[in-house]
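The instructor's notes for this session suggest beginning with a concrete chain rather than abstract definitions. Hand out the sequence below and ask the class to guess, before any prediction is shown, which regions might be ordered.
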Amino acid sequence: MDTRLRYGLGVLVLGLGNLAVGVSQFAVGDQPTLTVVLELGVGILLTGFGAAVVDNPDRIDLDQISTRVLQAVGWVGIVLGGLMMVWSAVVVVGAL
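After discussion, reveal the predicted structure:
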């Protein structure tokens, strides 16, 4: 998999994780409204940026950023975003 594509997927999954946490906290959580709005806002921005990079990985210039940084951000985003979605599902199921 191309490093830039993995980076885009990582940012996309991280954005989806933020959206999942925001929606679950809005629906059944006890976080303050401002925190939920911030989670949703960050989620929208990350999802949009990640989707744009997945759509066209050439948007990322490899001369401007290290390949290792792109790989690290990609993997961390995929793992962390996935865990955020799982945690959100556990919160919702636990509240039912």
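Then share the key points. The mean pLDDT is 92. Residues 33 and 64 are 38 Å apart (CA to CA).
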